[in-house]
Amino acid sequence: MKTLIIVRHAKSSWANADQTDFERPLNDRGNKDAPEMAKRLLDKKININHFVSSTAKRAMQTCVHFCKVLNIQKEEIQKEEILYHSSAETIHYVVGKINNDHDTIAVFCHNPGITDFVNTLLEKVKIDDMPTCGVFAVRADVEDWKEFYSAEKEFLFFDYPRPPQSPKGEAGRKFH
What we know:
Elements: E1 2-8, H1 28-43, E2 50-53, H2 57-69, E3 78-79, H3 88-96, E4 104-109, H4 113-121, E5 135-140, E6 153-159
Parallel strand pairs: 1-4, 2-3, 2-4
Antiparallel strand pairs: 1-5, 5-6
Helix pairs in contact: 1-2, 3-4
C-alpha cells in the first residue's frame, strides 16, 4: 500500500522586487500556515516516511516546516530541481522513481502543475485550484511507486488553510 501526500508551497513573499521567482521566501502567513497544516497531518496520524521537494526556496521552507512538526531531519529531504514549475507528467515521473521502502511520501511543489497533477489522480474528485499550503492525499494498493500512476486510487482527504473571512464570506475553493 502506497500513500501520496501532495502539498503546494505556502504563501510566499513578493516584498523584494529584485528577487527571482525561484528565490522568493515564505511570507508571515506562509510561515504560520505550513506548521499548522503539518499539525493537521499529525492529528490524522499520517506517518510520512519520505519528503520530496522542489528546490525553490518557498517549497523547501514549506517542507522544512512540515519536517520540524513531524520530527524528520531536514537533511533527509529529497531535493528535486525538476519539480520547480513542473508539469503533471514530471510530478508523476518523480513519484514513480521513489524508493519502494517508503510507503507514505509527501511531495512539495507548485502551481499550475500541482493542480493538473492532483486532477489526474482520481476520476471522480477534481479541484479547480490547489491553494497555497493545500494538502491532497490519495492511497493505492500497490507495492511499487512505478505502478502508482496507473493504479486505482482511494481519495483520503483535501485540506488547506482557510483564508481570512471577507465581508462576503469565505473565498470559495471549488472541489467536486
